[in-house]
């Protein structure tokens, strides 16, 4: 039986085995010598394990071209030498990336799953406008009109208040829907700029009580629909209202007319 097996083994088998044996020994020696990448390339050239497909999912604001450019992959990149940890570290530097998963799918595919951050507000500091997430971390400069409906936080350190800001104003939808911008004053309190031009000055403490007073005045007198430029709620025991310049002119005209009528009646007696 042994003789039969030996008889049917091709004469070239020993030569081929010897060749692969010496290739293996050579590659092992190169690996020990610190040439792992070269070893991987050599193995890939024999096995065809080159990266041919890159699948990116979960991305909305992050473009696939940015991903590919950052990874610097080409048709000669071996999937064996592709370092998943390094790729993940590089891609995490992209501005919209919140979390990312990178994995190899043999024989020739890289899968990249992206979880992006969500823009929660626009932060204005000096003349710069930037998108920030719910933690107050800057994402990118504002360049896209799609985000113009987000709330605007204005002032130094205003971005740091966004987590408390959401909790503070979300319970006042009737007021919140009127607000164009939130200005953080002296890192202590808010001024609210409404779409109709009215400025509401809130106190440093007791914001909820101040907004409750404002809402009550709005329900009774439609105060936010009148010719008012400023509603000052900084003092807990009073509300101060400043008229618009046009309203002041009209008010002064009414006062002057009353004086004229009064004086005319006085001189006529």
Automatic annotation (TrEMBL):
GO terms for cellular component: cell division site; plasma membrane. The keyword Kinase does not apply. It comes from Liberibacter crescens (strain BT-1). Keywords: Cell cycle, Cell division, Cell inner membrane, Cell membrane, Membrane, Transmembrane, Transmembrane helix. InterPro entries: Cell_div_FtsQ/DivIB_C (IPR005548), FtsQ (IPR026579), FtsQ_C_sf (IPR045335), POTRA (IPR034746), POTRA_FtsQ_type (IPR013685). Belongs to the FtsQ/DivIB family. FtsQ subfamily. One of its GO terms (biological process) is FtsZ-dependent cytokinesis. Essential cell division protein. It is a single-pass type II membrane protein. Residues 49-117 form the POTRA domain. Its main location: membrane. It is found in: Cell inner membrane; Membrane. The chain crosses the membrane at residues 12-31. Gene3D superfamilies: Cell division protein FtsQ/DivIB, membrane protein fhac. This is Cell division protein FtsQ.
């Amino acid at each position: 039986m042994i003789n039969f097996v030996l008889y049917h083994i091709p004469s070239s088998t020993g030569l081929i085995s010897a060749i692969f044996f010496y290739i293996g020994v050579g590659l092992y020696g190169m690996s020990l010598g610190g040439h792992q990448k070269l070893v991987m390339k050599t193995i890939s050239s024999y096995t065809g394990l080159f990266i041919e497909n890159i699948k990116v999912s979960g991305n909305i604001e992050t473009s696939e071209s940015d991903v590919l450019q950052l990874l610097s992959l080409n048709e000669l990149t071996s999937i064996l030498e592709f370092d998943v940890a390094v790729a993940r570290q590089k891609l995490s530097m992209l501005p919209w990336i919140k979390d990312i998963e990178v994995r190899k799918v043999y024989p020739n595919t890289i899968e990249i799953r992206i979880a992006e951050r969500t823009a929660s507000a626009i932060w204005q500091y000096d003349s710069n406008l930037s998108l920030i997430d719910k933690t107050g971390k800057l994402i990118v400069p504002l360049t896209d009109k799609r985000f113009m409906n987000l709330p605007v936080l204005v002032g130094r350190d205003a971005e740091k208040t966004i987590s408390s800001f959401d909790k503070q104003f979300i319970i006042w939808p009737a007021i919140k829907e009127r607000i164009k911008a939130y200005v953080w004053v002296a890192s202590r309190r808010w001024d609210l700029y409404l779409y109709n031009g009215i400025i509401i000055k809130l106190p440093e403490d007791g914001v909820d009580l101040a907004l409750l007073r404002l809402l009550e005045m709005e329900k009774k007198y439609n105060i936010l629909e009148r010719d008012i430029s400023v509603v000052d709620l900084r003092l807990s025991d009073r509300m101060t209202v400043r008229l618009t310049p046009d309203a002041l002119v009209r008010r002064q005209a009414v006062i002057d007319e009353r004086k004229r009528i009064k004086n005319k009646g006085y001189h006529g007696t």
